[in-house]
Amino acid sequence: MNIVASHSRISERTDKKIELKIASTREEREAAFALIYQNYLQAGLCEPNPTGLRITPYQLLTTTDIFVAKLQGEVISTLSLVRDGEYGLPMELTYTVEVAERRRKGLRLAEITCLADRRRGSERFFNQFCELCRLLVQYAVKQEIDQLLVAVHPRHAKIYCRYMAFTQIGGCCEYSVVRGSPAVALCLDLKQIQINRPANWARFFAQKLPDEVLISQPISDVDRRYFIKLQTEMETMETIPYLPARSYIF
After folding, report:
1. What are the pLDDT digits (tens) for 109-124?
2. pLDDT at residue 228, rounded to an integer
3. Long-range contacts at 234-239 (CB < 8 A, ≥ 24 apart)
4. pLDDT in tens, 183-238
5. Largest CA distance in the chain
6. Closest residue by Cα to residue 244 from 62, 73, 112, 77
7. Cα dihedral 57, 48, 118, 131 in deg (nearest 10)
8. Strand partners, 185
9. Phi first, then psi: what are they for 77, rounded to 5°?
10. Every domain of the chain and the residues it spans
C-alpha cells in the first residue's frame, strides 16, 4: 500500500485517498463523536440525545487520542485509545481484578474503545479497521504501552484473537450500559508480539510509519470546555463509555 505521510496524518492513495490520522481539531473530534452516536443509536446501544453526539469523559482527557479515517474531508471511521490515567480505564468498572493485576505488575496499559464506521460492507470495514489499528498499535509502541485492552462481544472475540493475536483475560459479563449485551475482555501484549511475530504481524509492523504521524494530539482546554458544555445538553451525563458499536454489528 502506498502511504504518503504529512504532519499528523497518513494518506492511502490506493483507497481513494483515505487519510488516517490522530484527530487534532475540534471539527475532527466532533465528527468522530457524531459517527459514534449514529452507530450506537442504530445498534440500539444508546438513547437519542439532542446533540447528536456520543461523548464519554474518557475522550475529554489529555491521555486519550482519537484516531480517524477521512475521505474527502469527512470522518468515515474512528476509534479511541484511552491511556491509563486520571479516570483509569473504561473496562475496569467491570473487569476490576484483571486491570488491577496488570497495574500491580507495573504494566503500562491502554484501552481501545468507541469504534465506529459509516460503511456497511464487512470487507471494506475490516480492511479500514486494520489500517486504523496499524496506526494505533505503532503509536502505542512509541508511547511505550505494554498491553492494549479491549472489550468486545463474545461472538467476535475469535476474530481479534486469531487475526490480531489478542488473548482473552476476562469472562463473559453483561454490560448494563449496552442494555445487557454480553462482553469479554481481551488483551494484546505488544512486547510479546514483537518477539513471537504472529501470522499477521507484518500487516501492522512491517512498514514502519513516520514518527511525525505518531505524535499524541491532546485535547485543548478550550475544546474540552466546549464538549463538556455539549454534554450538559444531553438528557443524562454519561459516566462510562459503551463498548465499541462495531464489536456488536460487525
Report:
1. 999 999 999 876 556 6
2. 93
3. 234/49, 234/50, 234/51, 235/47, 235/49, 235/50, 236/47, 238/55, 238/56, 238/57, 239/57
4. 999 999 999 998 888 888 888 988 899 999 999 999 999 999 999 999 877 644 44
5. 48
6. 112
7. 20
8. 151, 170
9. -160, 150
10. 3-249
Assigned fold of 3-249: Aminopeptidase (3.40.630)
Closest to 53 in 3D by CA, of 233, 174, 250: 233
